[in-house]
Specification:
Strand order of the largest sheet: 6-5-14-15-16-13-17
Structural class: alpha/beta
CATH superfamily of the domain at 5-52 and 102-172 and 269-348: FAD/NAD(P)-binding domain
CATH topology of the domain at 5-52 and 102-172 and 269-348: FAD/NAD(P)-binding domain
Radius of gyration: 20 Å
Largest sheet: 7 strands, mixed
Shape: globular
Number of helices: 11
Order of helices and strands: EHEEHHEEEEHEEEEEHEEEEHHEEEHHHH
CATH class of the domain at 5-52 and 102-172 and 269-348: Alpha Beta
Number of strands: 19
Length: about 375
């Protein structure tokens, strides 16, 4: 397909990597983002070798690596703080680290800057109110009253995707797992040079983000999906860690004092078993396969989606065959990540067998090392 005009709904990780990938294939690209400030919350994200490989394919690996902290292992701890396994992780791009911890703001800046440099048009504070697909193209009416016509529309608008609601009104909706995640930034100790993952019903991880910074994530059972007032977030997070026997975690917990710095998120998931497109409108990332963060692959799957979708659109004679091939390449891999992540989550909650983190991590690395 040549000279196609593409609208991407959503200016997050999936939308921006899709824009970059499509511009590299020669598509005309416009990105709309509902947030007029184009901001992201300020904790970090873990990204493994498959993402580093994808960043190399997108031509931005050096900027990406420079913005984060590279590492080559995952260390597993039991709740007391004793290390029980140190898992080397496979390098998929020679001369680069096999994993990266990166601040979401830093990642957003790399992707946003490269999207604009690539020639995509980015419009902020805007939503798509009407998508009229007549078979030959999609006429879009925007929230500011303007309108335009596109050959293809990509819904990269996240877990609560309005695009998904529009094209698949009967599709599955996000489901709360019964667990939530708490995140907080700390100065990085010298010994945290890779992911430190603590086993147990309270899942804990320490992730390096830079020479100076790391973040902690804590997964906790939250029956009934309670709401926490902003002014109670720091004290509530400390309470969640009060019974963890690790002295190191206890010391870190005592320094959680700033309510505004705590990021709290109920964990939800969704997976579309049926089609991922309707006519000329297609979904990617969390809009179609949102996962819990237990394997650190949510953003990775969205980034891989972007590469595969761009490849298939460039190679196919029409969007129907491109979208069909895209789903075929992505379905099993994304379903594995969603299901395996949920299994860890449900094991921690007592809804299923407790999953051994070391085994699950090794299996995940083997899976995502496979070609996309």
């Amino acid at each position: 397909m040549e000279h196609q005009k593409v609208l991407i709904i959503g200016g997050g990780i999936g939308g921006l990597t899709s824009a970059i990938a499509l511009r590299r294939k020669g598509f005309a690209v416009e990105v709309i983002e509902r947030d007029p400030t184009w901001s992201v919350y300020g904790v970090g994200i873990i990204q493994q070798g498959n993402v580093i490989r994808a960043m190399a394919q997108l031509g931005l690996i050096d900027d990406y690596i420079e913005a984060g902290f590279g590492f080559d292992h995952v260390e597993i701890f039991i709740p007391t703080g004793q290390s029980v396994a140190k898992i080397p992780t496979p390098k998929l791009v020679p001369e680069y680290a096999s994993n990266v911890g990166i601040g979401r703001r830093a990642l957003h800046k790399v992707l946003g800057d490269r999207t604009i440099e690539a020639g995509a048009n980015v419009r902020l504070g805007l939503t798509a109110e009407i998508l009229d697909d007549d078979g030959a193209g999609v006429s879009v009416t925007f929230s500011d009253g303007s309108s335009d016509r596109y050959d293809i529309v990509i819904g990269a608008d996240g877990l609560y995707s309005q695009t998904r609601e529009t094209i698949f009104p009967e599709a599955s909706r996000p489901e709360f797992t019964g667990q939530s995640v708490w995140r907080y930034n700390f100065p990085r100790p010298q010994d945290v040079t890779g992911l430190h993952a603590y086993e147990g019903k309270t899942g804990i991880g320490l992730v390096p983000l830079s020479d100076a910074l790391m973040y902690m994530y804590v997964t906790t059972p939250e029956p009934g999906n309670p709401w926490y007032a902003k002014e109670t977030l720091a004290s509530s997070m400390r309470v969640k860690l009060a019974d963890v026997p690790s002295p190191k975690i206890a010391e870190l917990a005592s320094s959680i004092t700033e309510d505004a710095e705590v990021v709290y998120k109920p964990l939800e998931w969704v997976f579309l078993e049926g089609p991922w497109h309707n006519g000329r409108i297609v979904l990617l990332g969390d809009a179609v396969h949102a996962t819990t963060p237990h394997l650190g692959q949510g953003a990775g799957m969205a980034i891989e989606d972007s590469l595969v979708l761009a490849e298939e659109l460039a190679a196919a004679a029409d969007c129907e065959s491109a979208f069909t091939a895209y789903r075929a390449r992505r379905f099993d891999r994304c379903k594995y990540i969603v299901d395996a992540s949920k299994a860890i989550c449900f094991g921690q909650l007592g809804k299923g067998p407790l999953i051994d983190n070391a085994t699950a991590t090794r299996e995940m690395f083997m899976k995502v090392a496979e070609p996309i």
